[in-house]
Design a protein that fits this description.
The protein is built from twelve helices and 14 strands. It is α/β, with parallel strands linked by helices and 373 residues long. It is globular.
Length: 373
């Protein structure tokens, strides 16, 4: 072989190896943000993505992991149960080993078995339905939020101790999340001999709830609990006020969205909600809150900091195991505690948090909220 040709070949090979090595070093560790990018509750997806983005930006600014940066990849499930497995398979096909989400319980129930079967670490920051994890024997599925059977008793206790209603109506949207939390509230109220005169499902997405409002008026209801999301809650409150039904409404964290103000109007004033504790008010989270503000994001929503914490858990698992192998990270999470923006996180065998706190808030027509418990 000609010496000059051989030298040129050697240089080309060396340059190719250098480029290959640089490309490998530049590869990102992908975390899928699974939730609604489209559909009627995209705001909840926005909350989660804000939390993930802010956490990833903080980790990357500190050097990432082993020369690699983290990257968020959006995957849309429109908050629909039937889209849960489709979105999960999308993540698997993209060869992404870590997920923060899904956001909604129905989609989470649909996708969790796929993530577990395919060995993808899934941490939902917002899906509260017990059947996400109950009886499933999952190894890769976790939460950074409490369950409805923790949230329901918190709501019921406030109703019993502070509201003391005479006749209660409990409504729900017939979905895993809404019906689950409504049933939990009903069970706890009945144990305390509170008079639940109506337990009924409504159809999400409808625009006229006059029939159920008429039923509540006929029954003499003076308090309404609704299990579901903000679009229907807002309509129920507005239409109840328009039809002269003057009652106090209460809902779960799924109704805690500023968009509800535009739907309900003045009728939203005084709505009661159970929400995760306001971790943005903790002094130790001041720098994190400022990082949100610097990007015109809001750290005080229902799911921003639970999503930030889920991202922290994945990153800590990777660093602790010195591996991006989801199986090793999942095993580590099951056996260790993660310090996060929402406190120390530890999980039981089925991936539920050992401790989580829901507080009760009063919602105001300017979009602010006040803790009442």
């Amino acid at each position: 072989m000609n010496y000059l040709k051989a030298s040129a070949l050697s240089v080309a090979i060396s340059a190719g190896l250098m480029l290959s090595t640089q490309a490998l070093a530049a590869d990102t560790i992908k975390i899928a943000a699974v939730g609604p990018v489209t559909g009627p509750v995209t705001q909840y997806g926005d909350m989660v993505r804000e939390g993930i983005r802010t956490a990833i930006e903080s980790v990357n600014a500190a050097g990432g992991y082993d020369g690699q940066q983290f990257e968020m990849v959006e995957v849309d499930d429109a908050c629909e149960p039937k889209q849960g497995p489709i979105a999960a398979n999308n993540v698997v096909n993209k060869k992404i080993g870590f997920v923060v989400g899904p956001v909604c319980s129905g989609a989470t129930v649909g996708g969790a078995s796929v993530y577990n079967q395919e060995g993808v670490v899934m941490i939902t920051p917002s899906a509260t339905a017990p059947n996400v994890t109950d009886g499933k024997n999952f190894d890769f599925v976790f939460r950074t939020i409490g369950r409805d059977d923790q949230q329901g008793p918190a709501a019921a206790k406030y109703i019993i101790d502070s509201v003391k209603p005479s006749k209660v109506a409990i409504l729900h949207d017939k979905q895993s999340y809404g019906q689950g939390i409504a049933s939990s509230v009903q069970d706890n109220l009945k144990k305390a001999n509170v008079n639940v005169v109506l337990f009924e499902g409504i159809n999400a997405g409808e625009t006229d709830y006059s029939s159920v409002i008429t039923k509540m008026k006929s029954a003499g209801v003076d308090f309404v609990y609704y299990g579901g999301y903000h679009p229907e809650m807002g309509l129920l409150m507005r239409q109840a006020a328009e039809q002269g039904l003057k009652v106090k409404f209460m809902g779960p964290e799924g109704a805690g969205n500023p968009e509800i103000n535009a739907i309900a109007g003045d009728a939203v004033e005084g709505m009661l909600l159970t929400l995760p504790a306001d971790y943005s008010a903790l002094p130790e989270n001041k720098a994190v809150v400022e990082a949100f503000k610097a990007k015109n994001r809001n750290a005080s929503g229902a799911f921003q900091l639970t999503s930030y914490a889920a991202t922290q858990a994945i990153v800590e698992g990777i660093k602790a195991t010195k591996s991006t192998d989801p199986e090793k990270v999942a095993e580590w999470l099951h056996g260790n505690t993660v310090k996060s923006v929402i406190g120390d996180l530890s999980w039981n065998k089925q991936g539920d948090l050992n401790e989580f706190r829901f507080d009760v808030y009063t919602w105001h027509k300017d979009g602010s909220k006040t803790a009442v418990k």
